[in-house]
UniProtKB/TrEMBL annotation:
Coiled coil: none annotated. GO terms for biological process: L-valine catabolic process; thymine catabolic process. This is methylmalonate-semialdehyde dehydrogenase (CoA acylating). Its EC number is 1.2.1.27. It holds the Pfam family Aldedh. GO terms for molecular function: methylmalonate-semialdehyde dehydrogenase (acylating, NAD) activity. It comes from the Eukaryota. InterPro entries: Ald_DH/histidinol_DH, Ald_DH_C, Ald_DH_CS_CYS, Ald_DH_N, Aldehyde_DH_dom, MeMal-semiAld_DH. Residues 35-499 form the Aldehyde dehydrogenase domain. GO terms for cellular component: mitochondrion. Belongs to the aldehyde dehydrogenase family.
């Protein structure tokens, strides 16, 4: 096995029919700088959601292999943390260059395993690449503070030190961006890392790990292990792991938050969402409709910042007619096809779940303005496709509203005033993002102040902050104190040490005082 061959195989499966049926490649772990095949007897298929072909298989990594990965990370830590920050930054500088070089390979892998369109897959890589670029400035980001003469001849300074071994647990929906939210910030600030990619689409993580090694990351600084619940629990329980970054569903996220916190670890847990867009009667017509269609159906609705619910203030009828017209014109196809606007959802089970939630909406009284459930895509009849679907007259008690659907389904609600619309949004348990579409500064300002969501868009449908800010979901969409990337991300992966030093000619013979030292 060589990692390059692995990457080649997975990147050609979208077009090479013969590879789909023969022995799928087994995805190795990366332990201590070597890509090694697991000795496990249990493997899970990685399935192309547009074709059902088996792209590769991931192992349910054995406990001793996991221990070897943590031990490699632990051994690599002392010398890596003492490596000059400029050297660590240069690895990131090289990594960002290599990611650009291999952008097409990464995107093809993502489309093959995850299903999103190639253009969207490039966006997935690019939004992660921006975090790598940001990590190139770690020297400034990690600076401590200094205050001289806090007392006579005494100075105090604080330094931000790495924690040790950190771990990342990833979801399926952004196979490149989310690993890149994690390990570049962690390792550039001096930590070593164990990454657990999603079992559904591990390929991008493997290519990124290969690139990180090529960029000069020393052996053991980044390790990758595959598996599902058991390995996640092992990460939560391991005493050598100091911090866990998690992105995924609430079920897994709250379990991990509780279990890992109980062992004293830091945890940042980004979870599910139900993002609302409030449309005011004065909103710019065309721009708003385009934004709603793009943010509702892009990536087949499988974005944690997808706008899955619209609240129209006033009469929704004209808006809804136009929405249906535009949604109907979207092309559903395999992500590798150049005309595709949206690809399949990740699995057969995901499709069944999406369809069940649509049906439950209908049964509880919502009007199905557009039904994408029976779509068949020529040439990809086996794919998990769901076409754009629009439900109108949705109310807060409906299951389709209470659950995160994570599919190309837009729910339409109605409110009589901005106040009422804001109350609807605030009653929802999630708080990842919310947007308003309006030409009124007064309405926008009220929305920004009163809305209970961590990321607010004003005429911006998916307000995901760039890496110099942080990703700041709130309420049930986040557990922890320090968010991903930005200043908070650096703070998450570092702890403060505060040093007080005294350099003065000590006055002789002043005696010993046992009173609390003060500088009065
Ligand atoms: P998921 O929770 O099923 O899986 C995420 C990770 O957790 C995987 O690596 C998986 O192996 C592991 N896992 C799953 N169930 C587990 C369990 N019971 N015990 C231990 N480990 C478990 O999530 P997913 O389906 O891959 O991703 C979709 C979800 O992620 C959506 O809810 C979406 O909103 C959310 N998401 C959130 C953000 C954000 O930043 N808030 C970003 C992307 C995705």
């Amino acid at each position: 096995f060589t990692p390059q061959i692995f990457a080649l195989n997975i990147s050609t499966t979208a077009t090479d029919q013969s590879l789909r049926h023969s022995d799928p490649p087994r995805v190795p772990n990366l332990i201590g700088g070597s890509f090694v095949n697991s000795q496990s007897s249990e493997f899970i298929d990685v399935i192309n959601p547009a074709t059902q072909q088996v792209v590769s298989q991931i192992p349910l990594t054995k406990n001793e292999e996991f221990q070897a990965a943590v031990s490699a990370a632990k051994q690599a830590f002392p010398s890596w943390r003492n490596t000059p920050i400029t050297t660590r930054q240069r690895v990131m500088l090289k990594l960002q260059q290599l990611i650009r070089r291999d952008m097409d390979k990464l995107a093809m892998n993502i489309t093959t395993e995850q299903g999103k369109t190639l253009k969207d897959a490039q966006g997935d890589v690019f939004r992660g690449l921006e975090v790598v670029e940001h990590a190139c400035g770690m020297a400034s980001l990690q600076m401590g503070e200094f205050l001289s003469n806090v007392s006579h001849g005494v100075d105090t300074y604080s330094v931000r030190e790495p924690l040790g071994v950190c771990a990342g647990i990833c979801p399926f929906n952004f196979p490149a961006m989310i690993p890149l939210w994690m390990f570049p910030v962690a390792v550039t600030s001096g930590n070593t890392f164990v990454l657990k990619p999603s079992e559904k689409d591990p390929g991008a993580s493997m290519i990124l790990a290969e690139l990180a090694m090529e960029a000069g990351l020393p052996s053991g600084v980044l390790n990758v292990v595959h598996g599902t619940n058991d390995i996640v629990n092992a990460i939560c329980d391991d005493e050598d792991i100091k911090a866990i970054s998690f992105v995924g569903s609430n079920t897994a996220g709250m379990h991990i938050y509780a279990r890992a916190s109980a062992t004293g670890k830091r945890v940042q847990s980004n979870m599910g969402a139900k993002n609302h867009g409030i449309v005011m009667p004065d909103a710019s017509h065309d721009a708003t409709l385009n934004a709603l269609v793009a943010a509702g159906f892009g990536a087949a609705g499988q974005r944690c910042m997808a706008l899955s619910t619209v609240v129209f203030v006033g009469d929704p009828k004209e808006w809804e007619i136009e929405l249906v017209k535009r949604a109907k014109s979207l092309k559903v196809n395999a992500g590798t096809e150049p005309d595709a606007d949206l690809g399949p959802v990740i699995s057969k089970q995901a499709k069944e779940r999406v369809c069940r939630l649509i049906q439950s909406g209908v049964e509880s009284g919502a009007r199905l303005l557009l039904d994408g459930r029976d779509i068949v895509v020529p040439g990809y009849e086996q794919g998990n496709f769901v076409g754009p679907t629009i439900l109108s007259g949705v109310t807060e008690d409906m299951e389709c509203y209470k659950e995160e659907i994570f599919g190309p389904v837009l729910l339409c609600m109605q409110a009589d005033s901005l106040e009422e619309a804001i109350k609807i949004v605030n009653r929802n348990k999630y708080g990842n993002g919310a947007a308003i579409f309006t030409s009124s500064g007064v309405a926008a300002r009220k929305f920004q102040t009163d809305i209970e969501a961590g990321q607010v868009g004003i005429n911006v449908p998916i307000p995901v902050p760039l890496p110099f800010f942080s990703f700041t979901g709130s309420k049930a969409s986040f557990a922890g104190d320090l968010n991903f990337y930005g200043k908070a991300g650096v703070n998450f992966y570092t702890q403060i040490k505060t040093v007080t030093q005294q350099w003065k000619d000590l006055p002789g013979g002043s005696g010993v005082s046992l009173a609390m030292p003060t500088s009065q």
